Amino acid sequence: MTFANVSELHPLTTEKPASHPHRQVALDWLLGRINYERTAFVPYQDRQLKLDRMRQLLTRLGQPDAGMKIVHVAGTKGKGSTSAMIAAMLTSAGYRTGVFSSPHLERIEERFTVDGQPCTADELIALVDRLRPIVASMDAEAAADGDPTGGPTYFDVTTAMALVHFVERQVDAAVLEVGLGGRLDSTNVCLPVVSVITSISFDHMKQLGNTLAAIAREKSGIIKPGVPVICGVTQPEPQSVIAEVAREHGCRLIQLGDVFQYRYVTMEDCGLRHPEGTRDCGLGELKSEILNPKSEIGAVKFDYNIPGQELHLAPLPLAMRGPHQAANAAVALAAVAELRHQGWCISTDAMRLGLSRAKLAGRVEVVAGEPTVVLDTAHNPASARALVEALAEMAAAPRRTLVLSISHDKDVRAIVHELAPHFDRIVVTQYQDNPRAIGAKDLAQIVHDILGDARVEVCVSPTPHEAWHYVCRTAISHERACITGSFYLAAEMRRLVLTSAATATAGS
Known about the structure:
Elements: E1 2-3, H1 23-31, H2 51-60, E2 70-74, H3 79-92, E3 97-100, E4 112-114, E5 117-118, H4 121-144, H5 154-168, E6 173-177, E7 194-197, H6 205-208, H7 212-219, E8 229-231, H8 236-248, E9 253-255, E10 260-266, H9 267-270, E11 278-280, E12 285-287, E13 298-304, E14 311-317, H10 323-341, H11 348-357, E15 365-367, E16 369-370, E17 372-375, H12 381-392, E18 400-404, H13 412-419, E19 425-428, H14 440-451, E20 457-460, H15 464-474, E21 480-484, H16 487-507
Parallel strand pairs: 2-6, 2-7, 3-6, 7-8, 8-9, 17-21, 18-19, 18-21, 19-20
Antiparallel strand pairs: 1-16, 3-4, 4-5, 10-13, 11-12, 13-14, 15-17
């Protein structure tokens, strides 16, 4: 596989494996906590997810969240991108801004960022050392009460670490991304200045419910009395649930389609170019001619219509690709508009600059080369559909290859149904770093069932490493390979892709 020359690697991928002797000790302790990200079944009940336990942990830490200006972001899809966009706009306005997100792609430090920079290994170790004795005490108390698994979970601990880190870095604002659901999520102990619900679609049905209304009810659990709510949900059923909860709590509801609207446009349509004539491809700033101009990033037109707070913004370039990112940008812009109403000093220039810089690894992330690689973390039917729409904007490729692995607790058939018909061949694999993956052969059978007699080559590669080398070995000129289906697959294969890219660049 060959790659275009790059000037620098993406900030989150350049860090070499840490040589700090205590980092692995800290990681081992964290991974020893109950970690529902790495279990075959993810519970969502008051018995396992105890907000009282999280509140007690924060109390023993001195209430690091007290007085912190927090934007709380929930949603089925888009919450990571929306959080990144809100944070980038605040940073561009001069506010030191922290973001707590999950899961991470490659290093746990990515979960705790300030102004876009992950915490350092030394900071991670110090945070673990701060929490370890408190958590040990809570473990002992829970065991004495007959609950040996009743101590803080991995997500409890990492949430607390984020809040402590933000206090120590003296942030002006923090954006907290919900991990699962909302009502019982560890982040839901916060009192935010604004609550955000990006979207509602089917995901985690075993935990959250089998209807959009039930899922919306769980996610609207983040709504706090009197705290304004930004809602990007468009379907009537879940929208009405969120509106009902907002009314019950005396909250102003700032609803997409009512208070604010957006329109997605391509930059080519607007006669615009990305700032400085460059675009991010996950490997730093590449000159715009490296990628086909047909795949140019898009922009969003935004209108906000509260009397006295009207805001009408001409197309704002987006660093992240795909029409779905315009919806995320609109929700982020509405959140920032509400902050402006609360007295925050955020200029429209800062809003524009933030959106042009906001980016996340693994979100329609393009690595130019032979084949061109698109990495994405789509892991539910709605995000798979959004990925297909983003790919449709790119220049035609002579062959389109899908590399796929999915968690068995997802709606596997629906995800395959959204993705499979749009590719010429499909390489089914099974990610290795987490036990939740559906077996490669089982996934291949589902692909066969859905495709029927369609003339699509389907092959099985047991591991991502084998899948990657098979794709490279058999690629044709100008082929496009899309790697998706799970955060965990994107993480494992991103390392392989970027290692190959760095090797090819060094040898060129």
